[in-house]
Amino acid sequence: MTRHVDVLIIGAGLSGIGMACHLTREQTGRSYAILERRTAIGGTWDLFKYPGIRSDSDMYTFGYGFRPWNGTKVLADGPHIRQYVEDTAAEYGVTEHIHFGRKVTTARWSSATETWTVEALDEQTGAVETFTSNFLVGCTGYYDYDNGYLPEFPGAADFGGQIVHPQHWPEDLDYRGKKVVVIGSGATAITLIPAMSDDAAHVTMLQRSPTYITTLPANDPVAVGMKLAKVPDKVAYRIGRARNIALQRASFELSRTNPAASRRVLLAAVRAQIGNKIDMRHFTPSYNPWDQRLCVVPNGDLFRVLRSSKASIVTDRIETFTERGIRLASGEELAADIVVSATGLRVQMLGGATLEIDGEPVVTRDRVVYKGTMLDGVPNAMMVLGYTNASWTLKADLAAEYFCRVLNHMREHGYTRMEAIAEEGDRSPDSVMGGALTSGYIQRGDAVMPRQGTRGPWQVINSYFRDRKMLRKAPLDDGVLTFTRASHAAEARPLVATRTA
């Protein structure tokens, strides 16, 4: 049986649940459904189970703008974030719209009927189900849920211990009393080191090159103060959110306008944390701040375990794995019972589903992103990608608000199709994230990431204030986004257990 809905959302993580809530909040009058491959809400926060998993953005800005995060932790742990997303879904009646265990394999647009036809595999039964919709929204993020990035380490087959990737953490992994080496220097690695150090015999952080790391208090003093002063939750959230957005932006702008000053500030703060016992070269990157994402540690927990000698840090290259550990280019050998390869993600668009327009395959790398939310030449479709230089949810919220503006505009004027069309001069060789960061996973993802443009609404500059003005206030009819009417729009067929937003 083919089931029809006005808006079909792929993904029930932070972005997908937020999109569904906005459809209701903005009174779009559109029915919707969510297809989610996993068996629970949460996306990233349901998938990752490694020790200490937490946000790498403050919760005032990582939470939804429309639903306060009431905790005082600056960086919340994964289970609490997943619960927050689940509670938000329940509050807005979203949960009943979700079809769990459905992996979207293809999405095909027909100009003749102005509908999307989406095939989804029920991974439990093996049955293929078909859904149709007037609009398609991709809320799948940009990484491959099945496979993390695992380099081909020489000699890995000779290693007598266990190699683990954080993306698929074994529930029964016992590292008590074991020697652990964590390969990597990003957010996952700096989370794992302090989380594992109390139980492991020793944890070594092995990095190829250093990362900028800054420390924040575990509990936000302003949030704590407002709770003590009994400031209403919604008011406190607005104040904290506005403050942290401004601080985020100021930090990023300083790194762009005066990278030397930004570098001095960051390195001085690290030097104050590590003292004289640890070589500062391990924390002195060769690149400028925010060329790669800044890593944050609460209460300096990473520096604390390094000072205590429960953990250590090594900057070197891997020559080969051995039976008992890892031999480095310097000749040093690190003994290990367990190696954790915190080496990043594999980039993937739309959860690996194939996209077609009137029978022609869509190659995302050949498309340009319009206002950071749509692919050129792909009608009636949205794509939610958060910020790389700020909290993901800030952009996801704005994208959802913008989509609702578009839907309401189309309803008011009787439009059935919208599409952004790029001209040749609008295209840039840079990927949508290529101009923002130089992180390894972004460089590896260049082959699949859509392009950003050279001008106007095609440029992706990752500025919340610019995007807020553009997505909330700028005219929808801008000469680039086109709206048309059709005399034979697809007849809406009710989707089982789905209500109008």
TrEMBL record:
It holds the Pfam family FMO-like. One of its GO terms (cellular component) is plasma membrane. InterPro entries: FAD-binding_MO, FAD/NAD-bd_sf, Flavin_mOase-like. Coiled coil: none annotated. GO terms for molecular function: flavin adenine dinucleotide binding; N,N-dimethylaniline monooxygenase activity; NADP binding. Its main location: membrane. Its cofactor is FAD. It catalyses: ethionamide + NADPH + O2 + H(+) = ethionamide S-oxide + NADP(+) + H2O. Keywords: Cell membrane, FAD, Flavoprotein, Membrane, Monooxygenase, NADP, Oxidoreductase. It is found in: Cell membrane. Belongs to the FAD-binding monooxygenase family. Monooxygenase able to convert a wide range of ketones to the corresponding esters or lactones via a Baeyer-Villiger oxidation reaction. Can act on long-chain aliphatic ketones (2-hexanone to 2-dodecanone) and on aromatic ketones (phenylacetone and benzylacetone). Is also able to catalyze enantioselective sulfoxidation of methyl-p-tolylsulfide. In vivo, likely functions as a BVMO, but the exact nature of the physiological substrate(s) remains to be established. This is FAD-containing monooxygenase EthA. It comes from Nocardia brasiliensis. The lineage of its organism: Bacteria, Bacillati, Actinomycetota, Actinomycetes, Mycobacteriales.
